[in-house]
Amino acid sequence: MTDAYIKIDNITKAFGEKQVLCGVTLEMERNESAVIIGRSGCGKSVFLKHLNGLIHPDSGAVYVYGKDIAKLSLKELVEVRKNIGMLFQSAALLDSLTVGENVGLALHEVWRYPASEIEELVEEKLQMVGLEGTGALYPSSLSGGMRKRVGLARAIATEPQILLYDEPTTGLDPVTADMINDLIIEIHEKLKVTSVTVTHDMRTAYKVGQRIVMLHDGRIVFEGTPDQAKYSNDSVVRQFIEGRASGPSQVQ
Amino acid sequence: MNSGIPLIGRRVIAFISHFGSTFLLFFKALYHFKSIPRSLGLITDQCFLIGNKSFPLIIITSIFVGAVSAWQAAYQFKYIGAPMRYLGTAVGKAVVIELAPVLTSLVVAGRVGAGIAAELGTMRVTEQIDALDSMGISPIRYLIMPRFLSSLTMVPLLVIFSNFVAILGALVVSVLLIDVSYQTFLLGVKYSFSISDMLGGLLKSAIFGAIIGIVGCHEGFYAEGGARGVGKATTQAVVIAAVMILVADYIIAMILFRV
Predict the structure, then answer these.
(1) The complex's ipTM?
(2) Where are the domains of chain B?
(3) Whole-structure pTM over 0.95, yes or no?
């Protein structure tokens, strides 16, 4: 048991021969916004998926509201997931559903709200992300930025207490990326959520993070405020935030 | 030689593991039958996709299955000197017991099994299945159970339809090309018709439908590795379902239609 809102206790994870996480420990308080940075393939998304039980650790534990989520029954896990929203890297909208149906999916399937209430909530969330009136469109007709915003509307549809963002600005132009950053901040303040954002975009990291955590070779190599990250003397951190190919972290 | 033994061992273990994983998914799908009432919309959508959309293909294949079986039967009758009045008997029996269930199922495996695997495989590699899980929606209830149940129920319906169309195809060939009157042909069909054969054929079709549904779902649901993985899953769904249908057909024939 733990008092922290989210506690990751010394987790390890390997896929076959590849060790992705090698003893990661992190605690988060309520209404905090943490950003996990690191190079592509360093295990950021794998780390994020541990927080809502999509992946379970090989050893160690993940506590959400003090509950070890690897030890929960499926029913208990669903209850925890009801309060965790997630924006996926590719938005992961269901192709066969309209934008409105995507946003209202959990409200319909899990919370079983009446159709009229779902319609109202869907429009409200679409309005929050600046996509009012797009409910009848299919994901295939949306641009990358719009898909991300619909994904965001879906993540906040049930007004969860925790929001997980997996590379929210990857693949977007700088203007759209900044719009997404603003939305993440606005949602964080408006809904009083605890946010965990995984990114390798330093502009996103500095803008949305109250705390920056850097993963490298499956371990946390830096933890501090955005200002501390900016002025860190650690060579791995410096190489990453300056975006240099040469340095201690070799391109494979 | 020595290196071959571990390789064979690994292949056998992989085969058993794959088979076990398919069975596990089958039981999970059965468990979620309890959610049928709240998933009716999803189930009817799948029934429409699996059933209604297969009708044109079943019409074409069944007409030619009936036509060629009438022609081949007539050729054999001529060879052994059997009277053509039994043509309807032979064709009717062959269609109801064997041809309609097996060939319809193989065609459906190609169309529906591949479609299910490709759709679920794409959903897997684009994280749509993870998205369902993250929202607290069981992908087994939302995706697998409706597809499995629809395949299980729609294949027998398609086979009933195929029976009629195939016999119609055989009738046309018999009347126009073999010079057997339609009264004689239909009398032969009626003579051979037995309700137990029909039920046996439908039982087989339900089992084949279950195989198509669960194999397609399994291959797609556990696909990995991007577009290549989806392609592999789609091919495997058709190949595994086709082989399992033919093996199951033999086993069911041994049990139901004793010599």
Answers:
(1) 0.91
(2) 4-256
(3) no
